[in-house]
Amino acid sequence: MTKFNVSSKMHLFIIISSLVVAIGLAIGLICQFTAGGFFNSGADYSSYRSVTVQYSMPTTDDEVSEICENAFESHGVSYYLATEAENAGGDEIEYRFSLSADESALIAAAQEIDSAVGIGSGLLGSASYSEHTAAFGGMNDMMYAGIALAAAVVFQFIYFVIRYKLTMAAAAFVADLHNLLIYFALLAITRVQVSVSVVAISVFVVLLTMIGCGILFSKMRSDFRNDSFKAMPSFEQVDESLREGFKPVTIINVVLASAFVLLLVFSLFAGSGVYGLFMPCISGILAVIACQYGTLMFTPSVYSRLKQHADNYAAKRVSKYSGAKKAAKSAE
């Protein structure tokens, strides 16, 4: 890190980021036409067919499962997910099938199960077929996600303008947009299932970017108390502060990534919650990767340009003011 001058590598990072976003866009567009969606929609946003079985005592889970398995097998259909739940009327099992499953076969299987568990059979139950149609990016999801992201970005920008400088706030704003683009591109590339929890992590990306940028800019503000630091060119100032802030930012990101990994491992050993935790944990790791690269590589290279332009503008104003002051003295 001591020999790597990040500030002078802006064009390299722009190329890297553009390639990642372009690959994500290409894969997403291909999947849009071949796999039914730009992102790999999770259970919260996927369309499916289902057979729902409701029952109560004295019917047992094993009895219902055996009846359902036999009915599905006899009609040549197989489910990819079965979820159990309890409600006021008793117990419930929902079997989910892909949209490619034969609808007529599912209806026939549901009718067979209904006859087997219904009142006429001596059991207290019923079965029904339904089709659930959903699409990622529904109006409510997009609205709430957009409001949360916009609020987080605006809050960060205002905070950085007040606490630091306008150039730092602008750099942090660019970092937000960049890290979100990289995060969504990685979701498209890796085909991680996108669900409500994964969308919520996009807000986490903004907050993690804010923490990283805050550490870097705080280092720079404290370094300005040193006269030798003030005498450095803008690029060297950014690189010097980045060397000091690289370790704490990396430690935070590594700890967060390790937490996601440990959460997934513990859930595997516990034997429960794996289906619901796997994709959010993977997306959390992708978010940390995007923030590590964007905050420590891309953002400093962009900020160094903004700072250089601001310093040059300030120097011109001082020179112009000094020249006018000298001219006024000469006229006297």
Brief overview:
The chain is α+β, with helices and mostly antiparallel strands and 332 residues long. 70% of the residues lie in helices and 11% in strands. The chain folds into 2 domains: 6-25 and 136-314, Multidrug efflux transporter AcrB transmembrane domain (Multidrug efflux transporter AcrB transmembrane fold); 48-132, Alpha-Beta Plaits (2-Layer Sandwich).
Class by alpha and beta content: alpha+beta
Distance between the termini: 55 Å
Total strands? 6
- In the CATH hierarchy, the architecture of the largest domain is Up-down Bundle
Give the rounded overall mean pLDDT: 82
| Percentage of β-strand residues | 5-15%
Report what the structure shows.
This protein is α+β, with helices and mostly antiparallel strands and 332 residues long. It folds into 2 domains: 6-25 and 136-314, Up-down Bundle (Multidrug efflux transporter AcrB transmembrane fold); 48-132, ACT domain (Alpha-Beta Plaits, 2-Layer Sandwich). 70% of the residues lie in helices and 11% in strands. The chain has helices spanning 10-34, 61-74, 103-117, 139-163, 166-190, 196-223, 227-230, 234-270, 274-331, and strands spanning 40-41, 48-55, 81-87, 90-97, 125-132, 193-194. It has a 4-stranded antiparallel sheet with strand order 3-4-2-5, covered by helices on one side. Strands 1-6 form a two-stranded parallel ribbon. It is elongated. The two termini are 55 Å apart.
